[in-house]
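2024-03-11 09:14:02 INFO worker-7 job=invfold-0412 stage=load source=structure_tokens
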């Protein structure tokens, strides 16, 4: 039987013809019609005025923080429960992360802990992460950031296609970062974007991402720039992927429903809650396996692994990572317990019902063995 992956790329003939269309146009560099169109389509998908296509989500976070004015010695409030890229981007600027724990309702940044941090610390920017395809509590977080005059950058890398009270992921804050890495809901093999309503920020991002070249024939430079643009070829791939976004959200949500229906009756097994007004993509469906089941999440993971099924622990929170553990953290127990008991299940849009049943049966067998 074939190995079942957590979230493999979903690419097909349609993507290939988009790539050959771009190839045949002769525009192979990080410039061209496909990039322009992809940027407009990303802006439309996130309810924004402008999009800037970049080489990765990490690059999008790095440039967003830079443009928000974050520099050496500054403090940036950031979700502790995230992938390292969010905290790494803060470090690239010589700034310090201030980690904010999750709330249980959504697993996202707890606004009460953010309020505590804002009251005590001199925070230069705030980066909530939309974890596993669910948007953070932006009505409350935006209000807090406004009150303290702190720029808000949404890390929507995992959440393209989600909504909160009807607002799309990518629409919160002054800028939002998207990712099109191979494991994300749409992929350009590697890629990312900034979306924003501010045309000056969008133009500045394009300029910084193209080595900050002044318009002189010899390329005059007054600012340190970056090589962060997305190629026209990959933008074509991104466009055909983005056109399929709604179906992908539906498929990932249907996995979540199926996993819930199959496992909900098992005592000690719970799922990431979908908060009020939130429509998550469930980029990954994650379960919490309480040790009272007789099985740890790690034992369940190894059981699935032996069946050729890739599952993974919930992100190890940044405040527990050796590279970041010296930084200040508000709270910390919630994300630590999510890491301790959480397991992310195969959730890709290529996962068929038969393979999904294999995952469910594997989980049911390890859970009943434990009892
Ligand atoms: C994937 C991811 C990123 C980074 O995106 P890349 O395109 O891989 O650089 C940033 N933040 C979060 C939360 C992610 O999951």
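2024-03-11 09:14:09 INFO worker-7 stage=emit residues=371
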């Amino acid at each position: 039987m074939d190995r079942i992956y957590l979230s493999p790329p979903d690419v097909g003939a349609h993507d290939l013809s988009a790539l050959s269309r771009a190839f045949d146009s002769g525009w192979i560099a990080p410039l061209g019609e496909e990039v322009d169109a992809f940027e407009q389509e990303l802006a439309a998908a996130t309810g924004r005025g402008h999009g800037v296509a970049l080489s990765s989500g990490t690059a999008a976070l790095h440039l967003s923080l830079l443009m928000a004015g974050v520099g050496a010695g500054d403090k940036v409030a950031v979700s502790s429960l995230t992938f390292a890229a969010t905290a790494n981007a803060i470090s690239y600027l010589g700034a310090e992360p201030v980690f904010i724990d999750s709330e249980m309702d959504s697993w996202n940044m707890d606004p009460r802990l953010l309020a505590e941090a804002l009251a005590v610390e001199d925070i230069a920017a705030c980066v909530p992460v939309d974890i596993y395809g669910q948007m953070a509590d932006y009505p409350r977080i935006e209000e807090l950031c406004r009150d303290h005059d702190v720029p808000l950058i949404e890390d929507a890398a995992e959440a393209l296609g989600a909504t909160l009270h009807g607002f799309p992921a990518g629409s919160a804050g002054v800028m939002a970062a998207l990712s099109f890495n191979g494991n994300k809901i749409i992929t350009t093999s590697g890629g990312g974007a900034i979306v924003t309503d501010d045309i000056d920020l969008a133009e500045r991002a394009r300029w910084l991402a193209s080595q900050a070249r002044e318009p002189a024939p010899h390329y005059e430079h007054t600012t340190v720039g970056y090589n962060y643009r997305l190629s026209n070829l990959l933008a074509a791939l991104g466009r055909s992927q983005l056109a399929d976004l709604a179906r992908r959200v539906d498929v990932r949500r249907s996995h979540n429903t199926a996993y819930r229906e199959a496992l909900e009756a098992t005592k000690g097994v719970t799922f990431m809650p979908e908060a009020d007004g939130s429509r998550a993509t469930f980029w990954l469906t994650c379960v919490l396996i309480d040790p009272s089941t007789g099985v740890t999440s790690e034992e369940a993971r190894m059981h699935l692994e032996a069946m050729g099924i890739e599952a993974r622990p919930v992100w190890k929170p940044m405040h527990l990572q050796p590279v970041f553990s010296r930084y200040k953290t508000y709270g910390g127990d919630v994300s630590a317990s999510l890491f301790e008991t959480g397991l992310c299940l195969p959730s890709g849009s290529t996962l068929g019902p038969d393979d999904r049943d294999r995952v469910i049966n594997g989980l049911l067998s390890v859970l009943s063995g434990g009892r």
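2024-03-11 09:14:09 INFO worker-7 stage=report msg="The CA atoms of residues 9 and 131 lie 19 Å apart."
2024-03-11 09:14:10 INFO worker-7 job finished
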